[in-house]
Amino acid sequence: MGYTRPVEGAMSHDRISRIRRALVVILVLNLAVAAAKLVWGVVSGSVSMQADGFHSLFDGTSNVVGLVGLALAARPADRDHPYGHGKYETWASAAIGAMLALAAYNVGTTAIGRLLAGSPAPRVDAIAFAVMIGTLAVNLGVTFYERRLGKRLGSEILVADASHTASDAMVSVGVILGLVAVRLGYPVADPLIALLVAGAIAYTALSVFRQATVTLSDTARIDPARIAALVNAVPGVLGSHHIRTRGSQAEVYVDLHIQVDPSATVTEGHRIAEEVERAVCHGFAEVVDVVSHLEPLDAYQSDKTAREIDAGLV
Known about the structure:
Structural class: alpha+beta
CATH architecture of the largest domain: Up-down Bundle
Number of strands: 4
Largest sheet: 4 strands, mixed
CATH class of the largest domain: Mainly Alpha
Helix content: 55-70%
Number of domains: 2
Radius of gyration: 26 Å
Distance between the termini: 22 Å
Strand content: 5-15%
CATH superfamily of the largest domain: Cation efflux protein transmembrane domain
Order of helices and strands: EHHHHHHHEEHEH
Shape: elongated
């Protein structure tokens, strides 16, 4: 037995199209931000602005990675991938996490190099502040929009990429504070702030990896007790156990065992099982597929359920 949510689920065409459009728009914005920082960084001789510009290029790269991962994830289920290709989206988010870790390493090593060797103070003027504040505003707007849309659509790519863009905003804040310190006569504050920003980026990378691990390791997505409460309320169900969930934030798969009257006919048992599958699939918005195993409620099954309850599995 089994029930799959109709096409309006997590990998629907509309959802994929909205995520793709968002990534394309954000890619253009990220490239514009990177170009502004790099150009004025070279003109003013600001090493920190140039480093921030290269960091912004990582945002553009992550958008490309996201688009590729999304294209793979949108492919329909086939014989070799009966559960679909949704995990490619998670792999893409993990790749973005790796880029964050690399960005943290680059920013950190650059800051340490400047602390040890020193470097000429950059030319700090109104244009430098205008470029940094303007690009910071763009990054904050992109982060807010992308994270909100990612949560609404349950997209790990958008949420991970929003974290990447937020890290770029943190770098920009550090650069702005460093430029202020240079104007005040404290150039050493620039690499020190950069070190703190590198730590914040590394923490963001860890958060992205942690979220990706939840999906890739098939961590349970829904408390079995919540599903059991819904299942046991279906007429004809006398008990349930061995409830398992896995999948991404927006695409959860459920399998479970349900117990019915031993005297029920095969037809009646099948009808009850289908009612359970529909109830679970429509009772949890993130569930896209449910498979139930039908069992007679006899002494053996009652004992099995009791053992699972004692073990805290239900």
